[in-house]
Structures are given as structure tokens and as C-alpha cells.
Amino acid sequence: MPGDDRLGIALIIGSVRDGRVAPLVANWFAAQAERRGDLALDVIDLAETRLPDGLRGHFGGDRPEEVTALRPRVDEADAFVVVTPEYNRSFPAALKLMIDSYHREWAGA
């Protein structure tokens, strides 16, 4: 994270459904990561970010505030850990939307 020599890890919880188990797994990972002094952990829970249901503003125009608010957190991460369930042999729509909402930020440039 800015001005920090630690490796910035964004821990993304990709499930948004009621009764989800992903936060339990993410909390376990976070507890392990926090034992290390060389990591700075940022937990991004997609159930709390309230990203929109579609890619509004993706191909021009203004992006929703929720998307622009999350941008610096994605951009500042040095690495990503994604905790996600499998739904219908794929990953959740909320995670797909998050991935598709950013481009340069994933590149680590």
C-alpha cells in the first residue's frame, strides 16, 4: 500500500449470496497473512462493495461510484488472493463484474 515496504495483498471475497462460506475461508487466510510482518492485507468483500449488476459506463460515459471507489484498492495491490465458490461450474457474476470493471489496475504497472 502507498509508502509501505510491505507486499500489498488484496484478499477478494467473491461470493455475495446469503449463507456463504467464503468469508470463513477468507478469515482463515487473513489470520495466517496477518501473522507475517511483510504483508499488508486489504480485504475486499464483494457483498459489501455493492458493485452494480452490469458494466454501466464501461464503454464510455461515467462509471458508477461503487466502481470508481474500489479502483484505488485494486490498483494499489501488489498481489491478489481470490476466495470464491463455484456456481454452475463457474465463478459468481459479482466476481466476473469486478474483474471486467478494471484493466490497467490488474496489470500492476
How would you characterize this protein structure?
The chain is α/β, with parallel strands linked by helices and 109 residues long. It contains five helices and three strands; from the N terminus they run βαβααβαα. It has helices spanning 22-34, 46-49, 65-76, 93-100, 104-107, and strands at residues 7-13, 39-45, 79-83. Strands 2-1-3 form a three-stranded parallel β-sheet, sandwiched between helices. The model has no long low-confidence stretch (mean pLDDT 87).
How would you summarize the topology of this molecule?
Layout: E1 7-13, H1 22-34, E2 39-45, H2 46-49, H3 65-76, E3 79-83, H4 93-100, H5 104-107
Short description:
This protein is α/β, with parallel strands linked by helices and 109 residues long. Helices cover 38% and strands 17% of the residues.
Using brief descriptors, characterize the structure shown.
109 residues; 17% strand; alpha/beta
Strand proportion: 15-25%
CA-to-CA gap between the ends?
14 Å
Helix content: 25-40%
Helix and strand run: EHEHHEHH
Q: Which structural category fits the helices and strands?
A: alpha/beta
Shape: globular
Please, what is the average pLDDT? 87
Low-confidence stretches: none
Number of helical stretches of at least 4 residues:
5
- Total strand count, please? 3
Rg over C-alpha atoms, rounded to the nearest angstrom: 14 Å
With strands numbered from the N-terminus, the spatial order across the biggest sheet is 2-1-3
Largest sheet: 3 strands, parallel
